[in-house]
Write a structure and sequence with these properties.
The chain has 13 helices and 11 strands. The chain has 284 residues and is an alpha/beta fold. Helix 4 packs across helix 5, helix 5 crosses helix 7 and helix 7 runs parallel beside helix 8. It is globular, with a radius of gyration of 19 Å. Belongs to the ABC transporter superfamily. Keywords: ATP-binding, Cell membrane, Membrane, Nucleotide-binding, Transport.
């Protein structure tokens, strides 16, 4: 069953020089128990697409779509209060830069318990017990003690685990992980990816991973969408994408991987293709 269905999503921001279209006609679908990766260079509209779907963009952003549904429910037709009942509960997101996403003025325990209070209505004792359970689930040592810590008292990897615990607190049907391993060292990256994939399999969640790392895509995804400058360039299952990419842009992305380097420096996408060549093969 489809969890999230998006057709012809357009997101525009007003700038001093006029409207800027950050997302231009993107369509996607993610099913129960499926992992979809959205990959592309920085600025390709990956995060904006998902923030638009969740209703988390500023009011100045103009969001339109032919269809924007979660679990068969029209998200665009919802009021802000109706959408807040879903976002954080049935759809959850792990944001980039956990240190910046967590509130420095409150303990991590307060921040996870706040979600449990708002969405599940648990009392104080039940909230604390659930928070400890979640910290244990994501591998935070001494969970009862850690609840009283502030974000600055924890490492980047631990803060990322806190963000994962918050996102999983209400057993969401769909989890969106936005660059979940950014700014973490290689060992912690592997631990976080392994944790996400284990939890996704155990809970049967649909999951969207937003990344520019093709290695992460290869390790985690069932299907892949490639984006460039707000448009979808290609969509394929993960094996097909790596073995026989259809678009010239995807081939260029794969050629720019360090393992494929043939000289002293990696080529840039601009050295391969013009925008006209890239968009000539774009899909909806």
């Amino acid at each position: 069953m489809s969890l999230l269905e998006v057709e012809n999503l357009v997101v525009e921001f007003q700038t001093a020089s006029g409207p800027f279209r950050a997302v231009n006609g993107v369509s996607l679908k993610v099913n129960e128990g499926e992992v979809l990766a959205i990959v592309g260079e920085s600025g390709s509209g990956k995060s904006v697409s998902m923030l638009a779907a969740m209703g988390l963009l500023p009011w100045t952003a103009k969001v339109t779509a032919d269809k924007l549904q979660f679990n068969g429910i029209d998200l665009l037709g919802m009021s802000s209060s109706e959408r807040r009942r879903i976002v954080g509960k049935d759809i959850a997101m792990i944001f980039q830069e956990p240190i910046a996403s967590l509130n420095p003025c409150f303990t991590v325990g307060f921040q996870i318990e706040e979600v449990l209070r708002l969405h599940l209505g648990l009392d104080k004792a039940a909230r604390r017990a659930r928070a400890i359970e979640l910290f244990e689930l994501v591998g935070i040592p001494n969970p009862a003690e850690r609840l009283s810590h502030f974000p600055h008292q924890m490492s980047g990897g631990q803060c990322q685990r806190v963000m994962i615990a918050i996102a999983l607190s209400c057993n969401p049907k769909l989890l969106i992980a936005d660059e979940p391993t950014t700014a973490l060292d290689v060992t912690i990256q592997k631990q976080i990816l392994d944790l996400l994939m284990r939890l996704q399999a155990e809970h049967g969640m649909g999951m969207i991973i937003i990344t520019h790392n093709m290695g992460v895509v290869a390790e985690t995804a069932d299907r892949v969408i490639v984006q460039y400058k707000g448009r979808k360039i290609e969509e394929a299952d993960v094996l097909s994408l790596f073995e026989s990419p259809k678009s010239a842009y995807t081939r260029a992305l794969l050629s720019a991987l360090p393992d494929n380097a043939t000289g002293d420096r990696l080529p840039t996408i601009a050295e391969f293709l013009s925008d006209d060549q890239i968009f000539a093969g774009a899909v909806r």
